[in-house]
Design a protein that fits this description.
It contains two helices and 33 strands. By secondary structure, the chain is mainly beta.
Length: about 575
């Protein structure tokens, strides 16, 4: 693992803070992904992004790309990412990798903070198995994503500190010494995206600037004139909870990741060291689904009989293990040769698992399990359904609607309160070249209409979810065609991002291309053109952080497309 880079960067940043170097950085606040497909419902829907908007997609472009040191295996390379604070205003993405390693990268620059290679007891995946380390890591995932902080309360004023500007900084010239914060650096222009509606112009006087900086750093003194609202409206002094250091930022909790010997690692947020004793979790050599942690418990499904074990769902409640003490208990629920998928959760904590075809009592099923004991509570089974991805859950009215997709493209809608019979089943999709649907996405537009997005070998299809009394159905909305093995789409602030992966199941591989389309009309807003070199393995996925859409190609290159925000160096 590259500890040196991580620690040097952090020590320099802390030294700058301690000596008073004026490098003020403020970042837009929003909810980040803590598990694959963003949330516990596996919707792939990011309702709020402070930068991505349909009418600003002309500003979207390649921000950076980074080549990662990693050994591809069985046509797989890197997973999706989960994003957490590392302190000092730094956001890191944690990514699973096929080479028995977990990687952390700076979300603003693509700088590799750490490349944790697991040693001791590493088990190479079988000929048809993917490495357990490829599973997307997880952080603690709330049952409902925390709402993004409001745009106006946190000092978004023309004449006060802007704690939600993308970044604002001042760096001294050579020989100048410590530079003061530049005039107006912490203030937004009236009428801009970042200014409060009632903001008045920054007047340029030293008194106004000094008052704004004092209020931002220490929350002391009176509210600067024309600050744009009363202090109480900002939820506390300066909108910063009284935090004094200009670099103040809280690091996230542990990131949980797997090594190929089936051991679960609780990685520290800054350098991916083991914050707890590594815990035995899955059978050595297993192929794992993406991880998810809900209510303090980590869940993972094993697939394809790897590690010479039957498939199943495993759970563990991580805890520190004293010297000579027992490791946390591992629960399991076995599914024979049928592949289970990462569980999804309702906002009330009910846990649902989909299972593919194979030998076993729970093959071709949607199953409701007790999240603590993994005891079966109810199920729906249809021979040959072969469910191929995690369920996607929509809360419509007072019902939890469970959407599950079969290998032939059919979409099953079930009432979470009664799995006995589906409420609706769509027709099969026209797939080719051995393509299996990549997973669903669900979102709700400004009118309150729910949309469900699915893939086939050459297109992404958007359908409206219609309700009438107790009945529910899907109707055609729009589709984007001429794609090559698309991955499951993401929906960000009403913009649908579609990745044509180029990873056809048969024949020559193509070249990946990213599209952004309007979520209601399907109108193309932007494409990456020929920017991407190579294809994206279908074992990977799209993921998101502030103003960015990211993915990794088969040669271990991570691409970050996004809005042209000022990003720290």
């Amino acid at each position: 693992m590259d500890y040196k880079i991580t620690r040097n960067v952090l020590m320099v940043a802390m030294a700058c803070s301690a000596t008073g170097l004026a490098m003020a950085q403020f970042r837009l606040a929003q909810t980040e992904a803590t598990t694959a497909r963003f949330d516990a419902q596996h919707t792939g829907w990011i309702p709020v992004d402070r930068a991505i908007e349909a009418d600003r997609m002309n500003e979207f472009s390649l921000q950076w790309k980074t080549k990662i040191e990693n050994a591809p295996s069985n046509d797989s390379a890197l997973s999706g990412g989960v994003v957490a604070g590392a302190g000092l205003g730094i956001k890191l993405a944690h990514i699973g990798a096929s080479g028995n390693r977990t990687i952390a990268i700076d979300m603003d620059t693509g700088h590799v903070f750490s490349n944790r290679v697991y040693s001791g007891g590493g088990v190479a995946p079988g000929a048809k198995c993917l490495a357990a380390s490829l599973a997307t890591p997880t952080l603690e995932t709330p049952l409902t994503p925390a709402p993004a902080p409001p745009l106006s309360p946190d000092g978004q004023s023309a004449t006060g500190p802007n704690t939600q500007l993308p970044y604002s900084s001042a760096i001294g010239e050579p020989g100048e010494g410590i530079s003061p914060i530049k005039r107006g650096a912490m203030f937004a222009a009236p009428g801009s995206f970042y200014a409060r509606a009632d903001a008045t112009p920054y007047d340029g006087t030293a008194a106004s600037e000094s008052a704004g900086i004092e209020y931002a750093e220490h929350g002391s003194g009176s509210v600067p004139a024309g600050f744009g609202g009363e202090a109480a409206a900002r939820g506390g002094a300066g909108g910063r909870a009284g935090a004094a250091p200009i670099f103040a930022a809280r690091a996230g909790g542990a990131t949980y990741a797997l090594s190929n010997d089936g051991v679960l690692h609780a990685l520290t947020p800054r350098d991916e060291l083991d914050g707890q004793q590594p815990m035995p979790f899955l059978p050595a050599g297993s192929q794992s689904s993406d991880l998810i942690m809900v209510n303090g418990t980590v869940y993972a499904a094993t697939m394809n009989g790897c590690g010479n074990r039957e498939n199943g769902l495993y759970s563990i409640k991580p805890a520190a293990t004293p010297a000579g003490g027992a490791f946390p208990k591992v629960n399991s629920w076995m599914t024979g040769t049928a592949n289970p998928h990462t569980p999804s959760f309702t906002a009330h904590g009910a846990m649902f698992v989909t299972v593919g075809s194979g030998a076993g009592e729970f093959a071709d099923s949607v199953v409701l399990l007790d999240p603590d004991t993994l005891e079966v509570k109810s199920k729906f089974t249809l021979a040959g359904a072969n469910f191929v991805s995690s369920p996607t859950i929509m809360r419509i009215g007072d019902r939890d609607i469970i959407a599950a997709q079969a290998a032939d493209g059919r979409i099953f809608l079930l009432d979470g309160a009664s799995l006995s019979m589906p409420l609706y089943v769509s027709t099969p999709a026209a797939n080719s070249n051995g393509y299996r649907p990549a997973g669903l996405a669900a979102w709700r537009d400004s009118s309150g209409t729910f949309w469900l997005l699915s893939t086939n070998s050459a297109s992404v299809v958007a359908r409206k979810v219609n309700t009438s009394g107790s009945s529910i159905s899907l109707s055609d909305g729009w589709f984007v065609g001429n794609l090559n093995a698309p991955l499951a789409p993401l929906v960000v602030n009403g913009v649908v991002f579609i990745l044509s992966s180029g990873d056809a199941a048969s024949g020559a591989k193509g070249t990946a291309q990213l599209y952004a389309v309007d979520g209601v009309t399907g109108k193309t807003l932007w494409t990456s053109g020929k920017t991407i070199a190579g294809y994206v393995p279908r074992t990977s996925e799209l993921w998101n952080s502030l103003g960015q859409i990211l993915f990794a190609t088969s040669d271990n290159t991570i691409y970050a497309f996004g809005m042209n925000l000022e990003r720290h160096l």
